[in-house]
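Standup notes
- DV: blocked on the single-chain target, sequence here:
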Amino acid sequence: MTITKTFAAALMTSTLLAAPSFAQSNPPAPAAPMAQPAAPAPMANHAAGDAWRASKFVGLNVYNANNEKIGDINELLIGKDGQIDRVVIGVGGFLGMGEHNVAMKWNEVKFVSEPVKSASTTTTTSRNTVGSGATTTTRTTVRDYPDHAMVNSTKDQLKAMPQFKYPSDTK
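- DV (later): unblocked, structure below
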């Protein structure tokens, strides 16, 4: 035999002898699983009865103590703590032209769920009386936002307040 054939035979023999020893070795232990972050607390699939939808506040009518409409809400300003800090109310103007924006603290604005009372408002919680000829309806509406807002100021007092400007408007 030549040296090459001898060398090849020796290599094959060593491979055949080593294969059973590799097959019987213990596999490496699996890596410990990474710690999973705690699962968030389950949320209800519906809003709590005392929760309001913030998106419904923009455009909400604002009235004074005499039930006179004096403006509407243009924006809610939220502090870095996540709490609503200010309510921006647009006063006056027509179709957004000439409107005077003022910012009031959240606690200076009262939110009311019942519709505004006026001379033309009729009672909506009465019954049909058979044979009386009077027909009225009972309306029970569940809303997840207030009907309107109220402030203790007149339209003129709000117009006299300094105009609110967003930081991006003061360039």
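- Follow-up: The longest helix spans residues 3-23.
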